[in-house]
Structure formats: structure tokens, C-alpha cells
Design goal:
Largest sheet: 6 strands, parallel
Number of domains: 2
Distance between the termini: 41 Å
Number of strands: 14
Order of helices and strands: EHEHEHEHEHEHEEEEEHHHEEEH
Radius of gyration: 19 Å
Strand order of the largest sheet: 3-2-1-4-5-6
Helix content: 25-40%
Strand content: 15-25%
Structural class: alpha/beta
CATH superfamily of the largest domain: Lactate dehydrogenase/glycoside hydrolase, family 4, C-terminal
Bound molecules: nicotinamide-adenine-dinucleotide, (2S)-2-hydroxybutanedioic acid
CATH architecture of the largest domain: Alpha-Beta Complex
Length: 326
């Protein structure tokens, strides 16, 4: 067994938290030989509920849980944290866009950025799940100037997984047979799920699906999947979001497989002409606990237009929260 690591989760009594914590505790995120100390954050009115969640974690008798604590103070929750999953935020309801949450949620991420700057491990890995996830990660990052900017990521893995499922259904294949799919940009309705470089069971995806299906069905379905789930369930996605968070952190830490890549929203270094510093989703490979953007992909005019549209939205979101970016 390895030495225990500290995993902080905010919004621990919420719907995503209720799926996520049990998967982290069972070893799905960091592996079956990695004990975890869970450090939970909630707001004061939810402290009773979080105590109930902790009772249930205890009752699972997970072999990998080496410690469990909860607080309503970010400085306590983030103390020495090696991993921070920022889930605690308001979800959107029917008819809203994720960026409509910016005002309600932005303040949470500036305060929590400051707290992790003060007390988290210097090698912390941070994942923003709470919406609008990319810009919330940007806010946290700017409020944590002593931490490596590359520590701050946002979740587009749910979009990536949704795109895999749509393409697998259409081509009569299995998600495990699909490689090199990318989601570019923002976790929002402007995101660009891109199959240009994707391979399905060894064949170029472009030979198996036509452009009209991509434009009229695939892209809008993936872009609007969150809204479709809210309409159907009356609440936003939770178990699939938790599963994507597990995938994101696992691949970042333990590595992506072979030559394949995954989508992660990370601080842009200017690759593919994307404005530096924006938290933009790129194709990445992870090795030895570090992610690297896949370079050298050819970008055609159709893709460029969509990549720029989602970049533009992120610039507008960034400008709307300028006052929170010290
Ligand atoms: P929820 O309302 O069920 O749970 C959120 C929890 O966060 C609540 O228990 C609340 O008390 C807590 N919280 C609020 N403010 C907090 C703070 N300052 N510190 C700590 N905890 C706080 O919502 P949910 O369904 O779990 O969704 C959480 C967020 O994740 C929402 O913003 C939602 O839109 C987002 N989300 C993102 C993705 C993605 O792919 N990036 C997918 C699904 C949901
Ligand atoms: C999702 O994509 O399911 C989440 O971001 C929730 C939402 O508001 O759509």
C-alpha cells in the first residue's frame, strides 16, 4: 500500500458528491493500492447532511479510507490537499445557460482559490466541476498565485464521454474501439466535439459518418446533452458527472492509455492559436502525472470556426469576472 493522499471535495452533500465520494473511496480514482484521506467541504446549513454522508462512508468499511473529516471552512478542508475537486456550486435549472451561474458561483471560487493558495499541497491537482466550470477554474487559479497555474483544470470529460457514446451508437461500435476524439473549448453549448482525427475500430470516423449527421445531430446532441438531462430528470446530471470526474483525475494521475488522448480543460499555452491563459479544453496525453497538449493536429476551416466561437465565449466570460482576477 502507498502512503495515504488527501482528497478534498467541495459540495460533498450534493447530488454529484453522493456518487463521487463512494467511487473515490473504493479506489476508482487513484487505484486499488492508494489509501485516501477524505476532506469534505459544505456550507453550514448542509453540515447535518454531510454528517449523514460520512456515516454512510463509514458503513461501507472501505479498505482504502484512511481518514474522513468535514468542515464548513475551506482553509480546513484544503489543508495539505493533494487533490481538490471543486463541485460545490449552484446548478442551473431549465432554460438557463451555464454562464447564467457566473454571478452566483464566481465568489465561491475566488475565496476557495485563496484558501488553497494558503494551505494546499504545492503539488495539488485541482478540478473544477461546478459551473461555469472553465471560468470558475480560471478564477480559482488567479486567486492562487503561489500554486502552479498548470494545477488548475476544468471538466470537459463528461462531454468527451458523451461524444464517445454518440459516435459508438451511430457506428455500431463500442466506446472502447474509439480513439482520438476531442472536445475543444468551453463546457457549454459552444463546445466543439471533433471527430476529424477520431478512429473507430481502426477506421477513420470520417469514412463511417457523414458531415450532415455530424452537423445536424452529433455536435448539437453533445452540446445540449446537459440540458436534455435537466429536462428529463428535473435535475442536472450527477452520476455521469461524478464518473467523468473520476476519469479526469485518474487519467491525469495514472496516465492515458497508449497513443490515445482525452479532453481536459487546462490553461492555454497558446497551442492551436488559442488565447493564452484561458481554461480551454484540448486533446491531452498524460504521462508521469503530467498532461501535455497533443500537438500538430491539422485544423480545417470547419473546425477552426467552431474552436474560435467557443474561445470567444471564454474570453467574454473572463472579461465578465475581471474584478475577481487579481
Ligand atoms: P447540488 O445542488 O446537488 O450540490 C451542490 C452542493 O454544493 C450543495 O450541497 C451545496 O450546499 C454545496 N455548496 C454550495 N456552495 C458551497 C460552497 N461555497 N462550499 C462548499 N459547498 C457548497 O448540485 P450538483 O448537482 O452536485 O452540481 C454541482 C455543480 O456541478 C453545479 O454547478 C452543476 O452545474 C455542476 N456540474 C458540472 C458538470 C460538468 O460537466 N462540468 C456536470 C454536472 C454538474
Ligand atoms: C452537464 O453538462 O450535465 C452539467 O454541466 C450540468 C448542466 O447544467 O448541464
Amino acid at each position: 500500500m502507498k502512503t495515504p493522499v488527501r482528497v478534498a471535495v467541495t459540495g460533498a452533500a450534493g447530488q454529484i458528491g453522493y456518487s463521487l465520494l463512494f467511487r473515490i473511496a473504493s479506489g476508482d480514482m487513484l487505484g486499488p493500492d492508494q489509501p485516501v484521506i477524505l476532506q469534505l467541504l459544505e456550507v453550514p446549513p448542509a453540515m447535518d447532511a454531510v454528517q449523514g454522508v460520512m456515516m454512510e462512508i463509514d458503513d461501507c468499511a472501505f479498505p482504502l479510507v484512511a481518514g474522513l473529516q468535514a468542515s464548513d471552512k475551506p482553509e480546513e478542508t484544503f489543508q495539505d490537499a493533494d487533490y481538490i475537486l471543486l463541485v460545490g456550486a449552484k446548478p442551473r435549472g431549465p432554460g438557463m445557460e451555464r454562464k447564467d451561474l457566473l454571478e452566483a458561483n464566481a465568489a465561491i471560487f475566488s475565496a476557495q482559490g485563496q484558501a488553497m493558495n494558503a494551505v494546499a499541497s504545492r503539488d495539488v491537482r485541482v478540478l473544477a466541476v461546478g459551473n461555469p466550470a472553465n471560468t470558475n477554474a480560471l478564477i480559482a487559479r488567479h486567486n492562487a498565485p503561489d500554486l502552479d497555474p498548470r494545477s488548475f483544470t476544468a471538466m470537459t470529460r463528461l462531454d468527451h464521454n458523451r461524444a464517445l457514446a454518440q459516435l459508438a451508437n451511430r457506428t455500431g461500435s463500442h466506446v472502447t474501439g474509439i480513439e482520438r476524439l476531442t472536445v475543444w473549448g468551453n463546457h457549454s453549448a459552444t463546445q466543439y466535439p471533433d471527430v476529424t482525427h477520431a478512429v473507430v475500430d481502426g477506421k477513420a470516423a470520417g469514412e463511417l459518418v457523414d458531415q450532415s449527421w455530424l452537423e445536424e445531430s452529433f455536435i448539437p446532441t453533445v452540446q445540449q446533452r446537459g440540458a436534455a438531462i435537466i429536462k428529463a430528470r428535473g435535475q442536472s446530471s450527477a452520476a455521469s458527472a461524478a464518473s467523468a470526474a473520476i476519469d479526469h483525475m485518474r487519467d491525469w494521475t495514472l496516465g492515458t492509455s497508449g497513443d490515445d488522448w482525452v479532453s481536459m480543460a487546462i490553461p492555454s499555452d497558446g497551442s492551436y492559436g488559442i488565447t493564452e491563459g484561458l481554461i480551454y479544453s484540448f486533446p491531452v496525453r498524460c504521462v508521469d502525472g503530467r498532461y501535455e497538449i497533443v500537438q500538430g493536429l491539422e485544423i480545417d476551416a470547419f473546425s477552426r470556426e467552431r474552436m474560435s466561437a467557443t474561445e470567444q465565449e471564454l474570453i467574454e466570460e473572463r472579461d465578465a469576472v475581471k474584478h475577481l482576477l487579481p
